[in-house]
Amino acid sequence: MQLESSERTSPMSEPTETALVRLEDVHLSFGQTQVLKGIDLTVNRGDAVSIIGPSGSGKSTILRCINALVQPQSGQITVGGTRVDQLTRETERIALRKRVGIVFQQYNLFPHLTVLDNIVLAPTRILGAERRATEVFARELLEKVRLSDKAKAYPGELSGGQQQRVAIARALAMKPELVLFDEVTSALDPETVGEVLWVIRDLIREGMTSILVTHEMRFAEEISDTVVFTENGRVVASGTPEQIFRGSDNSRIRQFVGGLSGGRSAARNGDALPDPMP
Fold first, then answer.
1. For residue 162, which of 11, 17, 158, 244 is within the disulfide window of CB 3.0 to 4.6 Å?
2. pLDDT band for position 275 (50/70/90)?
3. Which residues span the domain enclosing 246?
4. What's the CATH code of the domain at 258?
């Protein structure tokens, strides 16, 4: 559904439809290099959308546009009624990021702070939340990501998978309406990937609106409402996991999915993501 022009006048206008995120004909270049070449994407509230595709296809740049970390040269980006592409002041972009959490490939935890303090810092400093209540919520989040015994630990004492779970808890501490996951398992040891995916799956099952850039085909097929395949800065195809992973008539998509999944998928074989943690 197209928004009327009168609804596009303010970057902080109220939402008028069920879609939480909408990208329309988004173009972005870095110098002479075209990175996004007319991206269209819609994410409804409560949905999980996985973006897959070869390296350099623009996947992570899409997330950065949604979170106003980069600004496209043209096109429209709306998040919860906010015209992200029209935000010109840093205060406006900060306000957006209070509502849109992002978890990167690198954990970026403060090494001199405990796990609890890493989680509490942003809500108390940025949102002005009361410290005691925030600590209570932070401990609830640590239980959710299965790290309730690590509140007093420092990042250097944790495995990569544990640090990434702390980073997820830190993003959730801001109580965002949308969470972006940017290849969050790419830097992890294969043995710790499962523990992070399990946490994300739990959040999605609880209804967290999520956009994931991932190379974990099995996981994307299991948890996604919509899967988007990108290549050369364009959306080549978008559909249900069934349509993308099993029913696509696009030979390039079949080749890509088969190459990363070894020619099989979890859902197709009746497998489920195992729980790596007690």
1. 158
2. low
3. 13-103+176-263
4. 3.40.50.300
Euclidean distance between CA atoms 20 and 12, whole angstroms: 14
Task: Say if 6 falls within a structural domain.
Answer: no
In a domain, 34, yes or no: yes
Instruction: Tell me, yes or no, whether 139 lies in a domain.
Output: no
Cα 248 to Cα 64: distance, rounded to the nearest angstrom = 28
pTM over 0.70: yes
Single-letter amino acid code for the residue at 230 = T
Residue type, position 178, single letter: L
What pLDDT does 259 receive?
Answer: 77
51 close to 213: Cβ distance less than 8 angstroms: yes
On whether the CB atoms of residues 176 and 99 are closer than 8 A, the answer is yes
Per residue in 43-88, pLDDT tens? Answer: 999 999 999 999 999 999 999 999 999 999 999 999 999 999 999 9
pLDDT at residue 274 above 60? Answer: no
- Alpha-carbon gap, residue 238 to 128, rounded angstroms: 40
**What burial letters (b/e) apply to 31-49, b meaning 16+ CB within 10 Å?**
eeebbbeebebbbeeebbb
